[in-house]
Amino acid sequence: MTRNEGQASVILDNVCKLIQKKVHADNVLLVEKFAKALYSNMSKEDLAHRNDSDLYGAALSLWNSLEKNNSDDAVVRVFNPEVAKDGWQSSHTIVEIIAKDMPFLVDSVRMAMTRENISSHLLLHSPLKIQRDKNAKITGISSLKAEQESTSTKTVFFIEIDRQTDAKVIESFKKELESVLVDVSIAVEDWQPIREKLIAVTKDLPKRHHNNNESEVAETVEFLDWLAKDNFTLMGYREYELSPVQGDYQLKGKKGTSLGLMKNTDEEHSRLLSELPEVARQEARSNNLLILTKTNSVSRVHRPAYIDYVGIKRFDEEGNVIGEDRFLGLFSSSFYNNSAADVPVLKSKINRIMEMCDFAKGTHAYKAVLNILETYPRDELVQAREAELLEVAMGVLQVQERDMCRIFVRKDAYGRFFSCMVYVPRERYNTALRRETQRILANAFNSDDKVEFTTFFSESTLARTHYTVRVTDNNIEYNVKDIENNLIEAARTWEDRLQSALLESAGEARGKELNRKYAQAFASAYK
User: Fold this and answer.
1) What pLDDT does 459 receive?
2) Backbone angles phi and psi of 373, in degrees to 5
3) CA–CA distance, 487 with 1 (Å, rounded to integer)
4) Listed residue (40, 58, 28, 50) closest to 128, CA to CA
5) What is the pLDDT of residue 47?
6) Distance (Å) of CA 224 to CA 121, 204, 287, 518
7) CA angle 489, 492, 493 (to 5 degrees)
8) I need a surface site. Which of 241, 252, 330, 517 has the fewest CB within 10 A?
9) 376: nearest Cα among 350, 409, 412
10) 10 Å Cβ neighbour count for 326?
11) Does residue 1 have a pLDDT over 80?
12) Contact predicate 142/128, CB 8 Å
C-alpha cells in the first residue's frame, strides 16, 4: 500500500467516525453508505489532500439536500461554504446537483462549465436508487446495479470549481445549470415519443404523395430506418406546414406537435421563404424528399456540436410541398466512424459521384477519388451537393503528390457559414500556418467569429483542414483564387523564397544548383 492509499483509507475511516459521532442514530448507516458511494470514485491522491472534517461536511450537506428533494425536478446549489455557516469550508466554490438519473447528465454538466469558462478541480457523481417511506423519509439507498426496489433513482453531483466571489456570476451559473438540466430532461423523456414518430413517418412515407421515383423513396426509408437504430440521438420533433401567402410561402409549426427540445421554441412561429437565401428557397420547394443540414444552435445536451436537422417533406396530390416532418438531434459515433458505404443515402451519393467522374472501376484514379470521398468530413458529405463534391474530389486528385496548396469553398445554403477545405503539403502544416489561415479566411469573409477547424492526416502527402467561417450572411463577393494566393504565400518558408530568388537571378539550372549548395547554409538567426 502506498502512502497516499494508506492516508486516503485513514481519511475515509475518519469521515465515517465523524458521521457516527454527529449524525442522528436513525440516519448513521444511511449517511455512511451515502458518503462511501459519493467518494468511491475519488482518487487516492484527491482524498489524501483533503481534510476529513470538510469531506464529512460536504457529504452531509449533499445528503440533507437529497433528503429534502423528493420531486423529479433537479436541485442545483452553487455556494462558498463557511465553517461558521455550514460547518465546513473549501478553497473552491462548490456545486451540488441532485437530478433524476438519466443519460447525458455528466456530459451536459461538463459542457455547461466549459461554456462558462469555469474549470472543475473535482467532479464526483453517483447514481443511486432511493427508497422512501410514506412520509418521504429516506429508508434506503443502493447502487443502480442492486436488486432492491426503489421509489426513485437520482444522480448526485459534488463539484469543486474555480473560486467565484461575484454573486451575479454564481447566480448566472446556477441558472445555466438548471436550464441545461431541463433540456436534458425533456430530450430524454421525449426520446421514445420522438422515435415512435420517426418510425411512423418512415412507415407512412411510401404511401404519401410525392414526385419521387421508387428508388429515392426506398433509399429515404432505408436511411430513416437506419437513424432509428441508435445511429441518431433524437432530441426534438415538430411538424411544419408550408402554405402560399400573398405571393410568398409561409412555413409555420403545427400546434401540438412539438416534442423534446422543440418545446423550448415558439411552436407557431412562422417564417416566409422570401427571408431565406435563394438556394434555400429553391430547396424548400424542390422535389427532394430529404433535407439534411445543421441548425444554428450548438447542442447543450450530450455533445457540444451544432444540432443536426433531418427534414422529410410532405407533398399534396399535385406534387407541391405542403409541409415537413422535422427531427433534431445528433448523429451517433457510428455515422462518423463507420465507412460511408454503411450509411444509407451516403452510399448512393458516392456511387453517383463515382459515375460522374467516369473513371474505370479498379483504376488508380478511381480508387483515389473513392478514398477522397470516403475520408471526407462526414457532415460535409451530407450537406454538400454532388457537383460540389465532384469538383473537390477531382481538384484534390490533381494536386496529390505535388507541393502546392489548394482551397475549396462551399457556401451554406442557408447563408450561415462558408465551409473551406484547405489542402497543404503535410510537411508544411503547423500551428502557425493554421492560425494564419484562420486569420486570412476571417478577413476574406468578413467574419468576427472564431474560425472553427478540424485537421485530418492520412497516408496522403497532403494535410486537410476543414475551416468553418460563420457569418451573418454569406451572400458576399469573394475571389477564391485571391484567397488561395494568400494561403500559398502564408505557407512559403524562408527556403522557398531563397529558391525563388536564385531561380529568378541565375536561371533554372544554375539556380537549382546554388539552392542545393546554400539552402541549408544559413543560420536560423540570419533567417
Assistant:
1) 84
2) -75, -40
3) 57
4) 40
5) 85
6) 42, 12, 18, 62
7) 145
8) 517
9) 350
10) 20
11) no
12) yes
Q: How far apart are CA 421 and CA 17, in angstroms?
A: 62
**What average pLDDT score do residues 376-399 get?**
95
Query: Rounded to an integer, what distance in angstroms lies between the CA atom of residue 245 and that of residue 240?
Result: 15
- CA-to-CA distance for 302 and 102, rounded, in angstroms? 11
Q: What's the CA gap between 414 and 416, in Å, rounded?
A: 6
Do 422 and 465 contact (CB within 8 A), yes or no?
yes
Statement: residue 83 has pLDDT above 60 = yes
What residues form DSSP beta bridges with 293?
A: 309
C-alpha grid cell, residue 182: 431541463
Cα separation of the two ends of the chain = 56
Q: How confident is the model at residue 33 (pLDDT cuts 50, 70, 90)?
A: very high
In single-letter form, the type of residue at position 440 comes to I
State the cell numbers at 53: 472534517
- The Cα–Cα gap between 331 and 320 comes to 29
Length of the chain: 527
- CA 324 from chain center: how many Å? 25
Tell me if residue 168 falls in helix, strand or coil.
Answer: helix
Which parts of 101-254 are beta strand (E)?
120-132, 138-142, 152-161, 232-245, 248-253
Cβ atoms 74, 185 nearer than 8 A? yes
Per residue in 458-503, pLDDT (tens digit) is: 888 899 999 999 998 888 999 999 999 999 989 887 677 667 776 7
Kindly state the cell numbers that stand for 451.
474560425
Q: What pLDDT score does 523 carry?
A: 64
Compute how many other C-beta atoms are within 10 angstroms of the C-beta atom of residue 221: 17
Query: What share of the chain in percent tops pLDDT 90?
Result: 73
DSSP track, 230-290: IIEEEEEEEEEEEEEETTEEEEEEPTT--EEGGGGS-TT-EEEGGGS-HHHHHHHTSS-SE
Q: Are strands 406-411 and 321-331 parallel, antiparallel or unpaired?
A: unpaired
* Number of neighbouring beta carbons within 10 Å of residue 56: 24
pLDDT tens digits, one per residue of 401-435 = 777 899 999 999 999 999 999 999 999 999 999 99
96-138 per-position pLDDT tens digit: 999 999 999 999 999 999 999 999 999 999 999 999 999 999 9
Q: How many whole angstroms separate alpha carbon 492 and alpha carbon 497?
A: 7
3-class SS of residue 455: strand
- Walk me through the domains of the chain, giving residue ranges and CATH numbers: 3-187 (no CATH), 192-337 (3.30.450)
Q: Measure the CA–CA gap between 130 and 150, rounded to whole angstroms.
A: 5
As a whole number, mean pLDDT of residues 67-78 equals: 93
**SS3 (DSSP) at 312:** strand
Residue in 107, 156, 150 with CA at minimum distance from that of residue 127: 156
Least Cα distance to 295 among 264, 254, 329, 341 occurs for: 329
Read off the pTM.
0.89
Q: 384: helix, coil or strand?
A: coil
Q: How distant, in Å, are the alpha carbons of 157, 198, 227, 301, 402 from that of 230? A: 28, 12, 6, 16, 42
